[in-house]
Amino acid sequence: MINCICRINHSDLDMLQCDKCNAWSHTVCCGFFSNNDKRIPQFYTCNICLDNDISRLALYRRALSVNYNEEILGVGWLGKRLGVKEGVARRIVKKLLNDGFIEIIALNTRQRKYVAVKNENVKKKVKKYFYIGKVKHSLPIKDISMAKP
């Protein structure tokens, strides 16, 4: 299946296959000169998958920020606070629980309270979600070889 970011879904140029979703994209649309470009990584992830991953990471970072700067008053409240549906908020709460960022305190059989876990181990885990790293987003024009292949 061709699913290129250019939205022209026919294979008239070199193509790259995403190792995550198996869709094909035009090599040049992915920012590479040809399929012989040495910058193509061993494991290639298309821009569409990267965008989805980045969107999920951004949403989880927002949830972490709410957790440590406010108080999660419930799944429905978190959904409204983050601007997502309740089902998405439920999955976020489950991940926060599984990752050890929150604990449940039962007020009674029907009410729960979510409390942020604050200790050194959790602090290190939070920092990992906010680590950017040294990502090279673009190449200076002087680094682009204009020699014919």
TrEMBL record:
KW Zinc (keyword) present: yes
The name this protein carries in UniProt is PHD Zn-finger protein
Could you say which residues form the signal peptide? none
Which GO-annotated molecular functions does the record name?
zinc ion binding
Look up the domain of life of the source. Answer: Eukaryota
UniProt organism field: Trachipleistophora hominis (Microsporidian parasite)
Zinc found in the keyword field: yes
Sorted alphabetically, the keyword list is: Metal-binding, Zinc, Zinc-finger
> What residues does the Zinc finger PHD-type domain cover?
3-50
The UniProt transmembrane annotation reads: none
